[in-house]
Amino acid sequence: MRRMALVGVVVALVALPTATAAAAPRVLVAEFDADVSPPTASWLIDRIHEARSYDAIVIRLDTPGGLDDSMRKIVKAELASKVPVIVYVDPGGARAASAGVWISQAADVLAMAPNTNIGSSTPITSTGTDIGKDLRRKVVNDAAASLRALARSHGRNARWADRAVREASNLSADEALQMHVIDFMAPTLPALLRQIDGRKTTPRGFVLDLGGASLNERRMGFFTRLLDTLIDPNLLSLLFLAGIGGIIFEVFHPGVVLPGALGAVSLVTALYGFAVLPTDWAGAALVVLGLVLLVIDAHVVSHGALTVAGLVALAVGMLMLFHDAPAPYRVNTWFVLALTASLGGFMAFALGKAVQARRRPSAMPAMVGERGVARANGMVFVRGELWQARTEDGTPLEPGDRIAVDDVQGLRLLVHRV
Question: Which residues contact 188 (CB under 8 A, 6 or more apart)?
Answer without folding.
Answer: 113
